[in-house]
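Q: Could you predict the 3D structure of Vacuolar protein sorting-associated protein 26?
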Amino acid sequence: MVMVAVKAFPMNIQSLFGGQNGQNAPVIVDIIMDQQPCKSFKDGMPIKGSIIVHSAAKNRINVTGINIELIGKLEVSSCKNPLSINFCYVNKSLPIIDSNNYPFTFKSPELPYNTYNGVRAKVRYYLKCTVTKDSTPIYKELDILVLNTAQGPPIPVRPLNIDVGIEDCLHIDVRLDRNAINLNGQILGHVHFLVVKLVVKHMEINILRTEIVGGILSDQSSAEGQLTHETTPVFRYELMDGTPGKGEIVPIRMNLRNVPVGPTEINVANNFSVRYFLSVVIVDESDRRYFKKQEVWFYRSEQTPEVTETAFEIPEGCLHCDP
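A: Sure. Here are the predicted structure tokens for Vacuolar protein sorting-associated protein 26:
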């Protein structure tokens, strides 16, 4: 008989192991995490807890070995060659003591990537416990959540411009205050309608997530077609309905706190990347869709950014048409 129960934080996973035909009382194995200020971990944060082994009948348990492993794994399942790569691995053998409580500590583990669960790939961290009783090993796993933060983005911060032009029918200037955006903040900017000779039904901004698997992300490997791309729309922001007037300015203020996006990740275990794009979509009266997209960099910071005013320049650009 095996029963698994996951309790509220402190994190706990419990399993009962009984003998054949109920001859032996079940052995209960718990993995209990120590109380933390939050329910997630960051790179270098200590991971502490206890493994508790006891019998439902309160009999003495003959434990001959106990082991705890911290594993960080990249799993890619939706490509030609499925991958499973351990990028983090720490193994601890705990001393056998005259107690049913076996404490463990990973003092400063390397947790370089964020927990991720996508369409083609998964980045997973978990604890694996092995308890040996009478030469019979018992295995249990407990997933942990890793959410890393950064002081700032790893790229130069600059204003982002998306210049949209449809021949002589429409010319708009989409301006955002920055190309690197804090997930605790907002996407801020405005749309300036310079030429309006097209009947606009509505306009929206979509956030697209692109997963790239199969190797290191670089211009050379992309040109060789060695990578697999999977693009998924994750959020739709309706900017306006109807046709605007020439010279009209529409503000953009998109709060990211409840938007299902994570940080941009490049070359996770040299086999996986996540990139995000903003796609400006215009739908005319005939339901034709015109769009143009631009990459943005998302990062997670502990602090909420201040709102500032930024000056912009308008670059050259064109718009793709989806007939």
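Q: Anything worth pointing out?
A: The two ends are 60 Å apart (CA to CA).
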